[in-house]
């Protein structure tokens, strides 16, 4: 799925609020991919949520992963640990071993107990970077109120590495969602 040969993190930038991040590029382009396909979409077990019950325009969404997709993102994590260790002086201003990187690295891949793995992403619901939604005929549609009841083929950008105190991890941004209503069959005759 991924080819890492030309991937590189730019030097650390500090925002006006003090947040540190490093943009990820593939040669000179953003790193984008599609999770699944029209024929093999994914789904979200929790929908798009915010921390607490506050209304917010930036939400977290977790997509279900197949075992093959889970292995692909495990490879991504292994690449990340190696790359970050090799570039730790430039990115973190100190040499860090792969073990030290692993201790502080927050993977976008989540897995709890015997449940299937998920890919954690962000999406914006309004504003300049709002997620665009499409039907299976490539026509624009509004974002559903609850994404748990649709099959989804997301287009995702790996925008940057966030750095906070000793922890760091990737921001996966869902920029487009192709949505297909899940068939719901009444169980009563």
Topology:
Blueprint: E1 7-9, E2 13-14, E3 20-26, E4 29-34, E5 48-49, E6 58-64, H1 67-86, H2 88-92, H3 98-104, E7 105-106, E8 109-110, E9 118-124, E10 132-134, E11 140-141, E12 150-164, E13 167-181
Parallel strand pairs: 7-13, 10-13
Antiparallel strand pairs: 1-3, 2-3, 3-4, 3-12, 4-12, 5-6, 6-9, 8-9, 10-11, 12-13
Helix pairs in contact: 1-3
Please characterize this protein's 3D structure.
Helices cover 17% and strands 39% of the residues. The mean pLDDT is 93. The protein starts with 6 loop residues before the first strand and ends in an 8-residue tail after the last strand. It is globular and about 65 Å long. It has 3 helices and 13 strands, in the order E-E-E-E-E-E-H-H-H-E-E-E-E-E-E-E. The chain has helices at residues 67-86, 88-92, 98-104, and strands at 7-9, 13-14, 20-26, 29-34, 48-49, 58-64, 105-106, 109-110, 118-124, 132-134, 140-141, 150-164, 167-181. It is an alpha+beta fold and 189 residues long. The strands form 2 sheets. Strands 1, 2, 3, 4, 7, 10, 11, 12 and 13 form a 9-stranded mixed beta sheet that branches. The protein has a 4-stranded antiparallel beta sheet with strand order 5-6-9-8. A hairpin with a 2-residue loop joins strand 3 and strand 4 (29-34).
């Amino acid at each position: 799925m991924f080819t890492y040969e030309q991937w590189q993190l730019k030097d650390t930038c500090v925002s006006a609020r003090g947040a540190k991040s490093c943009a990820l590029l593939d040669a000179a382009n953003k790193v984008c991919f599609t999770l699944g396909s029209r024929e093999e979409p994914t789904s979200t077990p929790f929908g798009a949520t915010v921390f607490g019950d506050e209304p917010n325009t930036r939400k977290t969404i977790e997509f279900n992963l197949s075992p093959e997709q889970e292995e692909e993102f495990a490879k991504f994590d292994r690449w990340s640990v190696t790359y970050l260790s090799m570039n730790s002086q430039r990115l973190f201003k100190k040499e860090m071993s792969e073990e030290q990187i692993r201790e502080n690295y927050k993977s976008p891949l989540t897995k709890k107990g015997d449940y299937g793995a998920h890919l954690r992403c962000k999406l914006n619901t309004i504003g300049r970077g709002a997620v665009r939604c499409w039907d299976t005929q490539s026509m624009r549609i509004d974002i559903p109120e609850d994404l748990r009841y649709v099959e989804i083929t997301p287009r995702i950008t790996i925008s940057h590495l966030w750095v906070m105190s000793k922890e760091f991890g990737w921001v996966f941004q869902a920029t487009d969602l192709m949505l297909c209503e899940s068939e719901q069959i009444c169980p009563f005759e």
